[in-house]
Structure formats: structure tokens, C-alpha cells
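Supplementary Methods, section 5.1.

A reviewer requested that the exact input to the structure prediction be made available. We therefore reproduce it here, unchanged from the version used in the analyses.
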Amino acid sequence: QVQLVESGGGLAQAGGSLRLSCAASGRSFSSAAMGWFRQAPGKEREFVATISWAGKTTDYADSVKGRFTISRDNAKNTGYLQMNSLKPDDTAVYSCAQRRTGLGTTSSQAGLYDYWGQGTQVTVSS
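The structure derived from this sequence is encoded cell-by-cell as follows.
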């Protein structure tokens, strides 16, 4: 069973930065694509970023393109989301997700991810 644990959330000022981490258990991480999603209060969950199994392909939501960077270290079974130039609209619970073993291609569709973390709160003050 895959378990994902996010860390690195917290409070930041507008224009600031935070780095989220997603630690995965099991041996499937290195052969599966992963993604980050977020959900703000009263809003639906939305796609943020995704990265292929080897890290060669990435994709971002238009709202974060140029500000956020997704990466991964398969040797450490950990994924990352570097968030720069934060805005109050980035305030949300951020969750990482992983696709099933062998599904290494990226996707922006939450329904295609099989494993989810509990989420970490990111709050950006103006």
C-alpha cells in the first residue's frame, strides 16, 4: 500500500516562497507519475502540477505557470513543489498524488491518480 505524506506548508506573505515535499512509501514511486492538487475553501479541487516518472515531462496549471516548479528525487522517494511569488489566491490545502505503478505519464485529471496524501495547508497573506 502506498502512503503519501506532505510537509512544508504554512504561512507566507504575498511574494514569498514555500517548498512542499511529498514523501512516498513503497517501491512504486519511481515508476509512477505524481501530481499536486489544491483545494481552497468553498471551491473544487484543482490541478496544480504534474511530473512524469523520470522527471523529464512536467505540466502546470496556467495560474501557477512561471511561479511554481515541480520536481522529484526518486532515490529519496520524494516529490517537491517549489512555490515562488506566492499570491493570496494560492491559499489552499495542497495534496500530492501518485498514479499506479507503471503509469509514468503525466495527467492533470485527479481521477487518474490512485494514491493521495492528507494534504498540507498553505496560507498566503496580503
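The radius of gyration is 13 Å. These observations are discussed further in the main text.
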